[in-house]
Amino acid sequence: MQEFRKITVKVPQQCLDLVNQVFEIEKKISQINEEHSIHRNINKLRDLIENELFKGTGGTIGLSYHNPIGENYSDTRTDCEASIAGTSSDNLEIVEVIKPIIFYTYLEDEKMMKAIVQKAIVVAKSKEVTL
Amino acid sequence: MDNTINFGIDLGTTNSAIAKFVKGEVVIFTNPQDYGRSTLPSVVGYRKDKILVGPQAKTFLEKDPKSVVGVFKRKMGTSESFKIKAINESRTPIELSAQVLKELKTFVNTGETLESVVITIPASFDMIQSNATKEAGHQAGFKQVVLLQEPIAASLAYANMKKIKDLGDGQWLVYDLGGGTFDVALIKIKDGEMKVMDHEGDNFLGGTDFDNMIVEKLLIPKIKEQYSFENLEEEMKSASGKHNAKYYVLLRRAEEAKILLSAKTSAEIVIDGFDDEDSNEVDMEVTITRSEFNELIRPSIDETIEMIKNILTRNSLKAVDLLFTLMVGGSTYIPYVRQRTEEVLQIPANCEIDPTTAVAVGAAYYAATKQKEITKDDKPKKQSTISIRASYNKASKEKEELFAARITGNTEGMFYKIVRQDGGYDSGLKKLTERINEDLPLVENAYNFFTLTIYDSQNNVIETDVEPIGINSGFGISGQPLPEDICLEVDDYDHPGQTRLALVFQRNSVLPTKKHMTFPINKPILKGNEQDRIWINVYEGPQASLPEANQSIGVIEITGKQVSRDIAKGSDIEITITMSESRDLKVSAYLNMANQEFKDVFNPKERETNVNLLKEQVSDLSEKLDEEIDHATEKEDYETAGTLNKLKKEMRTVEEETEGLTTDDVTDKRYQLEDKKRKIAQAIDVATKHKRLQKVKEHYNDTKVECKKLLDETGNDHERKTFNDIVSQEEAFFSTNSPLKIQEKSDELHSIIHQINWRTPDFLTRVFNWLKVEHPKMNDQTQAKSLIDAGKFAVESQNWDRLKEINYGLLDLLRKEDRPKFEHKIGFGI
User: Fold this and answer.
1) CA within 13 Å, CB half, B453
2) What mean pLDDT comes out for the span B233-242?
3) Which of B65, B98, B71 is nearest to B84 (CA)?
């Protein structure tokens, strides 16, 4: 029988704040046409957060974050806290991301596991229907 | 046997909570689907096929009011019901409250079934409203429901926190300002009993109004000052307005700022991401000060104070007659609320209890004093008569996977719910029929666990034979595994002038994969100087082999001619190597100092050979061959010498032909020569491996003897253990026949020797004496002299720790002189 251990994860708020800031910088950079040099630092930061931040503390890997912009939103998505803009609440997609989803990744029995430590804060809106 | 109720529920208008009294303390249960949140929004939403309770329902409250209901508490005790569009039926406030209570039951993770509970009600509830609450409790499956008034609950929480056994005779106010409602009550202890003497309230005043005010009254005007908008309010607040989405963004940011202002005196709100009517991009930062915010909410707070004044007047009370105003509800975190009430009323504000959980906590304390009136039944969880057969893919690369199940048995009145273990997916409560079909969303590159839970009509868990659902996404799905190691050629600092291989990807790694490596450059690359070079040389083949014996996949050459400025020794080079599923190798090297990136894409199936590098490699190989022949002859290893000699003729041919190559040669000649070179290298490798292996084994054995001797003389337990660990593995690493691995072990033994030596007085003194002689060669003579003087003193006073430090210090002064001059080939190494 497959079993999984329920774990309690407590990530210091400062780490989450750090990740949120990196995410915001990344968002801003993606809108500027720059020669990739800042992108590189962001990637390095991301790499450090994902692989080095909690290294050595017994089996943990690190934090990773995901930007759900453009993805579908429905009432089953408990990984996002959403506000709905517009008149309709059908067929929603995520149009604004204020905070990303942050996962705590860890290895368990050689399986890569992820636990959500911060839900994304988003605004969703009904998809524009082009006729 | 514990026969008290112990469980307390705060069934609030906007938020609810559940708590339990355990061994003298109260525990608040948190929402298993909402990471650490201890409150549940009192909102119920309906869809055609499911019921949502809590945060997911709240999201749709504003935009889907026909199918999602909140604040139904206000209608408790009335005959009004809510028509629910999605299911084409009506639901009463009792049924909706029952739904919230059922959901709260799922927070309880202690494995017990709840049959008795204390539920709080507002001070304003009459008989009918109170009975309606009891009824809701029964519908949720509670056999025994005891009611408690909210302000009393809050007061009990306070009393228990202060460990006041006896509050004596006194009176105070309970001021409850939450997310959406305000209530104030006058509490008095009379004849040992706590009673609500009077109360007032406003059902439409709370913290969410404050967020709105910030956006409407502070932010929007400031935006209009700087940018041109005809009718910004409407465009933001109206559902059909152009900037409705931005309104919600600002609302969130306003809420964050509001919370910050409880701790700091000012907060910034960023407003960006949309254009005004002249196509100017809105990009501003508005600072809100605490005093601005206070001014904003003052009218609302003053309203609450008026209500309190009414109570005082009605009851002929003066400020001095009241002990304090107990602050309850999240919005009482706002400093101004406490300040202003104190200021105007002249009654001290009491903020000693946690405002968000006070009512639930008080209810639990009360529940601990109440006996259960039903027999504690140790009956096991309801045995189910249903059986579940599930089928789904255990591994997937898709974003979603279908979970299908067939249910046999009586499913009447049952519900099911599927949740993802990380908290990111919740199917909602759905009616159980003979089939389940759900699309489960997967987190990429992770092992996704889902649980399927079956409930009865009162949200009690029904035990079934269903197992946790596990689906592995992306990571670890076998595509083509890598057939050989992929390595990067680097300078070998243990054998200066030579190179070795650093492992990038191990064979059998799963593709696609990626690696970042950063190295400091070990020689300067001067701008314009073509002779200064860095090689990024990627090989396919065993990492333990010598580079020249492996298959070169691709080379990037960086010369002084290409760099935009001088690259100083010590600056970083960042190398990123990515391999796709189809084994395309993307290599990029970034020089920090020059802010330049060099990249290329290679495929092991296509070849690229850099002629300059080839020439160097051939020349190196030829030298090496000669060396090995000499060496073998010296050692009278005539067999090896013979084998190697046979290679000489071919080596010479390759040398000549390579010399003749131009860098822009278009024929296949370079590939042929590279192949030939590689074959020769392999042959040399094979012939001499034995020799290298012997040498390394000899060195290991010598080191081992030396180490053992030292250990016996002055070793400690830890060092002995380390030594024994290494020696016990001898058979294992000797059998690898890998000179590198055996060398590693010698190095480990050397570490032990070094460690022992550097605390042995005899050794330290000898080193010091030698350094004294070398004194004239040192860099900083003054520094050297003072260190030597200190050293002499250390020897006399037998301060060996100090002597060790002094020796290190003196060695530092020597190093530059001593450094042997050799050339680094690659430019970075390990």
Assistant:
1) 16
2) 88
3) B65
Most confident of the ranges B388-392, B503-507, B579-583, B660-664:
B388-392
Separation between Cα atoms, residue A96 and residue B446, nearest integer Å: 25
Q: Which two tokens stand for residue A6?
A: 């329920």
Amino acid, res. B227: Y
Q: Is the pLDDT of residue B218 over 90?
A: yes
Tokens of B605: 């199936």
Question: Stretch B240-261: mean pLDDT, rounded?
Answer: 90
Residue of B nearest to A43 (CA): B516
Q: Tell me: ipTM over 0.90.
A: no
Q: Nearest Cα to B416, choosing from B402, B429, B403, B434?
A: B429
**Which chain B residues are closer than 8 Å to A112 by Cβ?**
445-447, 475-476
**pLDDT band of B380, cuts 50, 70, 90:** low
Pick from B239, B426, B427: CB nearest A87:
B239
pLDDT over 60 (residue A59): no
CA dist., res. B73 & res. B293, Å (int): 30
Q: In the A/B pair of chains, how many CB contacts fall below 8 A?
A: 124
Contact between B604 and B540 under an 8 Å Cβ cutoff? The reply is: yes
Does residue B231 sit in helix, strand or coil? coil
**Helix H or strand E segment including B335:** helix B335-345
**Does residue A98 belong to the interface with chain B, where contact is any CB pair within 8 Å?**
yes
pLDDT, greater one: B463 or B402: B402
Q: Which of A87, A89, A113 sits opposite B60 (nearest CB)?
A: A89
Residue whose token pair is 């939403």: B45
- Run of H or E residues at B587: strand B585-591
Interstrand relation of B281-289 and B266-275 (parallel, antiparallel or unpaired) = antiparallel
Residues 6+ apart with CB under 8 A from B521: B534, B567, B568, B569, B570, B571, B572, B573, B827, B828
**Residue B114: CB partners within 8 Å, gap ≥ 6?**
B7, B105, B108, B141, B142
Burial class of residue B684 (count of CB atoms within 10 Å of its CB; 0-12, 13-18, 19+):
buried
B90 phi and psi, to 5 degrees? Answer: -105, 155
pLDDT average, residue stretch B636-659? 87
**What is the CB-side half-sphere exposure of residue B15 using CA atoms within 13 A?**
26
Answer whether 0.80 is exceeded by the pTM: no
Is residue B828 very low, low, confident or very high in pLDDT (cuts 50, 70, 90)? confident
First-residue to last-residue Cα distance in chain B: 67
